[in-house]
Design a protein that fits this description.
about 140 residues; alpha+beta; Aldehyde Oxidoreductase, domain 3; four-stranded mixed sheet; 3 helices
């Protein structure tokens, strides 16, 4: 399952139920950091073409489930204005064994960054806000 949310990801994480079948759980947390390319970052802003993002994000989740044979895969990407240390993206991959969960998690984040229409705008302390990493 892939979601886009303007709410705190921590609230969504707390609602997930963990399957007793799995032995390997890998999570990825993408957090807002206070720097990029030598500039001090104050905050980030994410925008998404939500309808397309949901379709493409769920395709990626389905692919990862099939290719890596894992039991569960959840992903949530934030939109809106985020402050330093906020969770911007969270991925939960669970499988019977850890290797498949690691690989599925890595595949999922890499594909999301390439294929899902979510855009990031950095707000700096020393520059005007800029859209970044829009080269995909």
């Amino acid at each position: 399952m892939f979601e886009i949310s303007d709410k705190s990801i921590e609230e969504i994480i707390l609602k997930n139920r963990f399957d007793p079948v799995v032995g390997g759980v890998v999570t990825f947390e993408g957090r807002v950091r206070n720097h990029n390319d030598g500039h001090k970052v104050k905050s980030l802003e994410y925008q998404a073409f939500e309808e397309m993002a949901l379709v493409e994000g769920n395709k990626i989740v389905k692919e990862a489930l099939e290719v890596f044979g894992i039991e569960q895969l959840f992903c949530v990407h934030r939109t809106g204005h985020l402050k330093i240390s906020d969770l911007a993206i969270w991925i939960y991959a669970a499988s019977k064994h850890r290797k498949e969960a690691f690989l599925a998690c890595q595949y999922t984040i890499d594909e999301i960054k390439k294929r899902v229409p979510v855009w990031k705008r950095e707000h700096y302390q020393d520059l005007e806000p800029q859209w970044v990493q829009c080269h995909h």
